[in-house]
Write a structure and sequence with these properties.
Aminopeptidase; six-stranded mixed beta sheet; 6 strands
Length: 149
C-alpha cells in the first residue's frame, strides 16, 4: 500500500490544478480512491522501479477506471497502454473510463488506448458529473477480447 500512497501523491499533485485538491497537514494530498474490496489496484514496474498504477471499481458493471497514473519520464513509451490492456484482458466485463473536461492529455491517451484495444468499437459521451462537472466518458467491453474465461 505504501507504493500506492507514494504514487498517488504524485498523481494528485499533477491533477490538483484541475481538481482543486489541497495538501493536508502532513504535506500530502488525500488519496481520492482508497484500495478496498470494491476498488482494486495494479502497480506497474519497470525493472525494479515503480512507475505507475491503475485503480478500478469492480462493485458493478461497467467496471470503472477510477485512477490511472504513469510517471512523466515513462510516458509515451507504451507502458501505460500495456498496463491498461493487461487490466482489460484480466476482466471479462463492460468498462467506463472518465476524464475531466479540461484534461486534454488524459482524454487523448484514453481515446488512443481504447480505440486500439476495441478496434474503434466504443462510445464517448460528454456529461455533467455531480462531483467533477463536465467529464468525458468512454464505454466499451472486453468481453469479446478477454482470454480469461
Amino acid at each position: 500500500m505504501d507504493i500506492y500512497f507514494e504514487l498517488s501523491d504524485l498523481y494528485e499533485e499533477e491533477f490538483a490544478p484541475l481538481t482543486g485538491a489541497k495538501r493536508n497537514g502532513n504535506g500530502h494530498y488525500p488519496v481520492s480512491t482508497p484500495i478496498n474490496k470494491t476498488h482494486i489496484g495494479y502497480i506497474i514496474f519497470n525493472a525494479n522501479e515503480k512507475i505507475g498504477f491503475i485503480v478500478i471499481n469492480i462493485e458493478k458493471e461497467p467496471y470503472d477506471i477510477c485512477e490511472f497514473f504513469i510517471l512523466k519520464k515513462y510516458r509515451n513509451q507504451g507502458l501505460g497502454q500495456r498496463l491498461a490492456f493487461t487490466v482489460f484482458d484480466a476482466h471479462n466485463v463492460n468498462w467506463s473510463v472518465k476524464q475531466l473536461y479540461n484534461a486534454e492529455q488524459a482524454r487523448a491517451f484514453w481515446i488512443k488506448v481504447i480505440s486500439k484495444y476495441t478496434e474503434d468499437n466504443y462510445t464517448e459521451q460528454l456529461y455533467e458529473d455531480k462531483k467533477w462537472g463536465k467529464v468525458y466518458i468512454q464505454l466499451f467491453s472486453s468481453k469479446e477480447k478477454c482470454p480469461c474465461e
